[in-house]
Design a protein that fits this description.
Isopropylmalate Dehydrogenase, 2 domains, 12 strands, binds 1,4-dihydronicotinamide adenine dinucleotide, binds magnesium ion, ICDH/IPMDH, IsoPropMal-DH-like_dom, 3-isopropylmalate dehydrogenase
Length: about 350
């Protein structure tokens, strides 16, 4: 039996995870569930670490993690969030961040007028290197002579493996997004790895766009995209743009995967939303669509499709939380989804 470790986390994390657990229970998918509800900001404050070695070994014994969200305004940001998210990413080498974006109803799209433009693509973002690798520093800080350098780290190994993953998920095309015309060293490496990767996957069409043009085309021709592959920073930016086109972070799922080991960390794109936490209005769809990704990854295609369809059905019927223009609470939306399962 596959087992899932669940980290509800902070803010609206536990609220949306509760909904996902009820839906999983209703589907009776034969998964065993280990909830780490002690991993949160209070523990980080008390013990200086939210995720212990014992937690990591419980996680290792499972097939995947479902995480709600971590972060609280009264707890120092980078230390805590790094402690949980980066340790999971690094411990399990979750180098591929997979973020599908599908417009489930044209009512959610800012592009609905005048033409209907559907969107059904995935952003594959390199998750372990690039501009976010933390190498760099400041010289003569806080003076008019200050120099700040953040190194953009790109390795042949890291780039090749994310390109291969992108091809493995494509239905018809992979579009590489970079800025090889301006960022020369890394651009050259990505372009060369791209040529080799395309040769390894001859059955898939390829396209190349610079990041600026890609941002424009996501808005003007969203239906042309299938899989977009990009570095850590470009993938971060494009996935927020794509998520906004599909109705916002209330419906945006995400997975960080290691395709070799099969292990994955699944979490909604949104954070812990302290501004609405405890009010019972958090949109559970992002967490439900994330749960569908998780169980699809474990081979439960029928149950995953049932969750996707139940969410799409709720959206079509207008049974949604305020962020999507509705008036239902998290509980009422959960009930609607459970009823249509
Ligand atoms: P956020 O995603 O938590 O919230 C941004 C805005 O979207 C807020 O107005 C919020 O109310 C709204 N929102 C988010 N999720 C929603 C949902 N399910 N339903 C309805 N509205 C929703 O991002 P923010 O405010 O930048 O960060 C808050 C905390 O979350 C911080 O501590 C941050 O570090 C953490 N964070 C954690 C992430 C994670 O666990 N993966 C990811 C992003 C942020
Ligand atoms: Mg982001």
């Amino acid at each position: 039996m596959d087992s899932i470790t669940v980290i509800p986390g902070d803010g609206i994390g536990p609220e949306v995870v509760e909904c996902a657990l009820e839906v999983l229970d209703a589907l009776d998918a034969g998964l065993s569930i280990d909830v780490l509800d002690h991993v949160h900001a209070d523990r980080y404050r008390r013990e200086g670490q939210a995720l212990s070695e014992a937690d990591l070994s419980r996680i290792s014994a499972s097939s995947a993690v479902l995480l709600g969200a971590v972060g609280r305004p009264d707890v120092e940001e980078t230390g805590y969030v790094r402690d949980v998210l980066l340790r999971l990413r690094i411990s399990f080498d979750l180098y591929a961040n997979y973020r599908p974006v599908r417009l489930m109803h044209d009512r959610l799209s800012p592009l609905r007028d005048p033409a209907r433009r559907m969107l059904d693509c995935a952003i594959v973002r390199e998750n372990t290197e690039g501009l976010y690798s933390g190498i760099g520093g400041n010289l003569r800080a806080s003076s008019p002579q200050e120099v700040a350098i953040d190194a953009d780290v790109n390795t042949w190994h890291g780039v090749s493996r994310i390109l291969d993953f992108a091809f493995s998920t494509a239905r018809r095309e992979v579009c590489l997004v970079d800025k090889a015309n301006a960022v020369r060293a890394g651009g050259r490496l990505w372009q060369e790895c791209w040529r080799h990767a395309a040769e390894r996957h001859p059955g898939t069409a390829t396209r190349h766009l610079y990041i600026d043009a890609a941002a424009m085309k996501l808005v003007t021709e969203p239906d042309r995209f299938d899989v977009i592959v990009a570095s850590n920073s470009y993938g971060d930016i494009l996935s927020d743009l794509a998520a906004a086109l599909a109705g916002g972070i209330g419906v945006a799922p995400s997975a960080s995967l290691n395709p070799q080991t099969g292990f994955g960390l699944f979490e909604p794109v949104h954070g812990s939303a302290p501004d609405i936490a405890g009010k019972g209005v958090a949109n559970p769809f992002a967490c439900l669509l994330t749960t569908a990704l998780l169980i699809r990854h474990l081979g439960h295609e029928a149950e995953a499709a049932a969750i996707d369809a139940a969410v799409a059905g709720s959206i079509a019927a207008g049974r949604v939380t305020p962020d999507l223009g509705g008036s239902l609470s998290t509980r009422q939306v959960t009930q609607a989804v459970l009823a249509s399962l």
